[in-house]
């Protein structure tokens, strides 16, 4: 049996076997949940993980409006966006983000944990976040994943 690391076969994105997973975000801590989602999107949970190729799976997140933050983060955590114009800084607290755009809390957390390259942007497109318990991806026959 060969155990040399340089003889391992790396899997390309075309040959990768992809699965669909459904994750229920109800009562899950945002940071812990998003790190597990990011590793699934990258493919780190597979033995055929290849860092330079997209071999990850698709992730559907339901009940994104029922996530939780620890401590006093609902009142203290701020999401900042800048429009590159003078005075163009927009600051939104986490509790305001939950009422207006609840799916963006989880989307921004996962996006920050993926690579900041073309590959990372491609991985990010395989995540679908919904506020309710319904999703339109039943045709893909997703598996429920308990985290």
What's the helix and strand layout?
Elements (H helix, E strand, L loop, with lengths): L19 E5 L5 H13 L15 E5 L10 H4 L1 E5 L6 E5 H7 L1 H12 L4 H7 L2 E3 L13 E2 L3
Parallel strand pairs: 1-2, 1-6, 2-5
Antiparallel strand pairs: 3-4
What labels describe this entry?
147 residues; alpha/beta; Ribosomal Protein L13p, Chain: A; four-stranded parallel sheet; two-stranded antiparallel ribbon; 5 helices; 29% helix; globular
In short, what is this structure?
The chain has helices at residues 30-42, 73-76, 94-100, 102-113, 118-124; strands at 20-24, 58-62, 78-82, 89-93, 127-129, 143-144. The protein is an alpha/beta fold. It is globular.
Write a structural description.
The chain has helices at 30-42, 73-76, 94-100, 102-113, 118-124, and strands at 20-24, 58-62, 78-82, 89-93, 127-129, 143-144. It is 29% helix and 17% strand. The chain starts with 19 loop residues before the first strand and ends with a strand. The longest helix has 13 residues, at 30-42. Helix 1 (30-42) packs across helix 4 (102-113) and helix 3 (94-100) crosses helix 4 (102-113). The chain contains five helices and six strands. With 147 residues, it is an alpha/beta fold.
């Amino acid at each position: 049996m060969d155990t040399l690391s340089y003889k391992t076969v790396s899997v390309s994105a075309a040959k990768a076997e992809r699965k669909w997973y459904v994750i229920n975000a109800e009562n899950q801590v945002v940071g812990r949940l998003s790190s597990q989602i990011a590793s699934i999107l990258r493919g780190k949970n597979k033995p055929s993980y290849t860092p330079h190729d997209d071999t990850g799976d698709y992730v559907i997140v339901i009940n994104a409006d029922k996530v939780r933050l620890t401590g006093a983060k609902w009142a203290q955590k701020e999401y900042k966006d800048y429009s590159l114009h003078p005075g163009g800084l927009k600051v939104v607290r986490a509790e305001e983000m939950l009422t207006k755009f609840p799916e963006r809390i989880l989307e921004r957390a996962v996006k920050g944990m993926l690579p900041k390259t073309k590959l990372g942007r491609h991985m990010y497109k395989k995540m679908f976040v919904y506020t309710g318990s319904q999703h339109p991806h039943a045709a893909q026959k997703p598996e429920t994943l308990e985290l």
